[in-house]
Write a structure and sequence with these properties.
Layout: H1 6-14, H2 16-23, H3 28-45, E1 52-55, E2 58-62, E3 67-72, H4 78-94, E4 100-105, E5 110-114, H5 118-135, H6 155-161
Parallel strand pairs: 3-4
Antiparallel strand pairs: 1-2, 2-3, 4-5
Helix pairs in contact: 1-2, 1-4, 1-5
Bound molecules: iron/sulfur cluster (SF4).
Iron/sulfur cluster binds next to helix 2 and helix 6.
């Protein structure tokens, strides 16, 4: 069974079709570049953090005993960012580490607090099951135009197939 990382959660919330394409490593290089960009942003914005924590595919900063923090460029995808961080908090909880989270948005210079509650843990488990349903499927979820599409790494792929009979 494929292991799920924070990007799986983020893509599932943004667009299940993006998640499927990512899981099949279609256009992986572009995604990989994006991951590298994210890493550079992390390093530029908050260089030389004394304490960092590796959680699956992510490195998050440990702010203090209470909080871990993720750094993002802008809050355009705030909902997806929050679920991604909730997923990291959930993974930590499974290892016996209970923390709260913060997302620092560098463009807007704002910080959002994220707390793993009983309710969002239940929702998180549903999302994890949903992620497995998507990535274990042989075909991609149907194309559906989203406001996010124009900024998506799979834009050319999806829009080239739009309207064609063989579009997945
Ligand atoms: S271009 Fe749009 S439909 Fe295609 S994967 Fe990206 S967000 Fe999803």
């Amino acid at each position: 069974m494929q292991s799920i990382g924070g990007l799986h959660m983020q893509y599932y919330v943004v667009c299940p079709r993006k998640l499927w394409l990512y899981s099949k490593q279609i256009g992986f290089e572009t995604e990989h570049d994006r991951v590298i960009e994210g890493t550079l942003l992390h390093e530029k914005s908050y260089p030389r953090k004394d304490k960092e924590l590796v959680i699956g595919d992510a490195v998050v900063d440990v702010i203090d005993d209470e909080y871990i923090q993720e750094t993002k460029l802008s809050s355009k995808m705030q909902k997806a960012d929050e679920w991604q961080l909730l997923y990291y908090l959930y993974l930590l909880k499974q290892r016996g580490i209970e923390k709260k989270g913060k997302i620092a948005y560098t463009k807007e210079k704002k910080v959002v607090e994220v707390v793993l509650t009983e309710d969002n843990e239940k929702e998180l488990k549903k999302k994890i099951a949903g992620i497995y349903r998507v990535i274990e499927s042989d075909s991609a979820p149907k194309f559906k135009k989203l406001p996010y599409c124009k900024n998506c790494a799979y834009f050319d792929f999806c829009f080239a197939l739009e309207g064609k009979d063989d579009a997945t």
